[in-house]
Amino acid sequence: MILIDLLKAVARQIEGFVRHDLKCDEETAYDAVIDVLYAYVEAPGRYDPDRARLVTYLTKAAKHRVQDRLKSGASRAQREENFASVVELGQSAPKDILENFVEASRAVERLEKRLSERDLAVVRLILSGESSTEALARALGLNPSSQEEMRREVKRHRDRLMKILERLGKEDPDDPA
User: What is the C-alpha to C-alpha distance for residues 92 and 22, in angstroms, rounded to an integer?
Assistant: First the structure.
C-alpha cells in the first residue's frame, strides 16, 4: 500500500513537471507518465543511477514522449489539412461534371457510328484496362494458328483502334459527325 502511494506521488510530481514545462494538457501528460512508468517496470536496466536521479530520468523520458505526441499530432493535422485542400481543389463543379458527361456521351455516339460491334467490344476492353492478348483476340473473334500470329493480329487491330480514338479526340466535339 505504501509503495502504491509512493508511485502515485511520483507520477503526480512528474506529471506536474511535464505540464508546467511543456504547457500540455493533463491527459497528454498523464498518458506520457503512465507509458514511461510501464516502460521502466518492463526494462529497469535502462536507468543508470550514476547519471541522474530516478525522478529526473522518468521526467525527461515523459517529456520526450509528450514532445513526440505533439509533433505527431501536428504532422497529422498538417497531413489532414493538405489532404483536405487537395480534395477541395480536385472536386469538379456540377456544371463541369454535366458537361463532361454530355461530351463523353457524344463521343460514344460517334464511336458507335464508326465502329462495328466487335471493335466496340475491344475498345471497351482496352478502356477498362484489359491488356491480355488472348482476351482481345477472343473479342476480335480471331483464331490464328500460332501465338505469334495472334499477337501480330491483336497489335494490328489495337493500333488501328487507337488511331481511330486519337482522331476522334482531335475532332471538334461541336461539329456533328
Answer: 44
CB 7 within 8 A of CB 21: no
Distance CA 63, CA 2 (A): 26
Identify the DSSP state of 51.
T
- Of 12-16, 37-41, 103-107, 157-161, minimum mean pLDDT range: 103-107
Residues 122/136, Cβ–Cβ less than 8 Å: yes
Cα separation, 78 vs 74, whole angstroms: 6
CB 136 within 8 A of CB 158: yes
Residue 115 sits at φ, ψ, to 5 deg, of -110, 150
Written as one letter, the residue type at 165 is: L
Residue 154 to residues 24, 119, 120, 146, 149, Cα–Cα distance (Å): 66, 11, 14, 12, 9
62-113 pLDDT, tens digit each: 999 999 988 888 888 888 888 776 665 556 666 777 787 778 778 778 878 8
